[in-house]
Every structure is written in structure tokens, then in C-alpha cells.
Amino acid sequence: MNGFFTYILIASLTIASPGPGIVLSISNSLKYGLKGAFPGIVGVAGGMFLVALASATSMGALLASSVTGFAIAKSIGAAYLIYLGIKLLRSSSIKLKGDSGEVPLHRPSTGARFKEGIILTVSNPKPIMFFIALFPQFINVASPYVTQFLFLSSTFCVLVFLIHSIYAMFAYAIKARIMSAGGFTIINRIGGTCFLLFAGLIFYTTKFS
């Protein structure tokens, strides 16, 4: 496999760039604690594997070659970001159990947070274009394609989990310093605004690209 460490570097920089998934991981860590953030992180990583799989199929080729299809897929992703943004903005200040400031009373189930991470990832078609552009650069034509694809995809998903976990751990570490009586309301507003901004950016690039 050609340039595996180069692949690691490119993938890590891409994953670490601020985006909806990062916002979700940080927001979950601040609201539900470090353990509470992991289901969403696993969901994002799992969703990324599904996106990588789609990029290797005819669906990925279709989205890459069809302007209309890609625009529709982007619009669906933007609509889901708007839903998440409004959901956070409408959330009231979260009350806490005990004095630890860690677990909200109305805590979504593990499955709900996992599903949210998956939907957030698969509703964004941009990673498909990334995989279509990136994977061929690191595929050795003399070796089995499926084995290499699975290895590259799995590596990317592991990096997603590790990097998002680092963001979540950092957010959790500074949680005590930034939380106050209305702290969760502020976090919800910041997270919701970020999701809406990402959605607006997607609609803007779809219209003018």
C-alpha cells in the first residue's frame, strides 16, 4: 500500500477540521459527560464507514457524476443540520442530577445518540467525494482491492473515533470552568447556531457551485 503514513496524515487533518461531527461530540461531552459522548462518536465513526462503502459502489459514482443528485444529497444533509440546530436552540437549560454536573435528567438513550451520529454522517455527501478522490491515491493495483479498501476505511473510522474522543475529553476537562447555572443553555445555543451555519454554508455552496 502506497504512502500509508501520508494517508494517516491527510485523514487526521481532515477529521480534525471543525465540522458538524466535531460539534456533536463536543456538545454531547459537555451535556452528558465523557461516557455519554461515546455513543455519538461511535455513531459518527460507523456512519463514516457506511459513507466509505457507498463511495466504493455505483451510488458513490452516481453522486460524483450527477450534479443534480449531489445537490439533492447535500440539501438533505443541510436539512438534517437545520433540524439539529433548531432542536438545540429550542432546548431549555438542562437540569442536573446531584452536584457532579454530569448527567442531565432528560438524557437521550444510548441508541438515540448512536443513531444521531450515524444520521449526521450519512446525510452529508461530501465525505463520499473525499473518499472517491483520496482512496485511489493509496490503492496498489497489484494487490486485492477489497482488502485494501477495508483496511483504509477501517483506519479512517478508527481515526474518527480517536480524534473525536480527544475533542470530547478536552471539552469535558474544561467543563467545570465554563459551566454555570445557564451554561447548558449557552452550549445548546452555540451548538445549534453552528449547525445552522454549517447548513447555510452547504446551501450556499450548492447554489453557487
TrEMBL record:
Recorded topology in the membrane: Multi-pass membrane protein
Alphabetized GO MF terms: amino acid transmembrane transporter activity
Residues that span the membrane, as ranges: 6-26, 38-56, 62-86, 128-146, 152-174, 186-204
GO cellular component, as recorded: plasma membrane
Keywords: Cell membrane, Membrane, Transmembrane, Transmembrane helix
Pfam families per the UniProt record, alphabetical: LysE
Location of this chain's protein in the cell: Cell membrane
Organism superkingdom: Bacteria
Protein name listed in UniProt: Putative threonine efflux protein
Source species: Solimicrobium silvestre
